[in-house]
Amino acid sequence: xxxxxxxxxxxxxxxxxLQKMTDKPLTRCQSCGGRLxxxxxxxxxxLKGSGWYLTDYARxxxxxxxxxxxxxxxxxxxxxxx
Length: 82
Prior knowledge:
Elements (H helix, E strand, L loop, with lengths): L2 E6 L5 E5 L17 E4 L13 H4 L3 H10 L13
């Protein structure tokens, strides 16, 4: 369940409420009865691994084909000066 943040327009109170996504938003402050406004808060999440499809989830055969077609076969590129 997500945590929603509210700010009271009358007293400035800041609330954090654990609610289901289907629950109706709060409308009144419990301390002063003022109107509550739901604010967008900074979410936190962690990216683990390299996060790229080709390096983490693609099949090895496909990865090998793509690296050969793009010239990443491990050999140094030939220079035009030779």
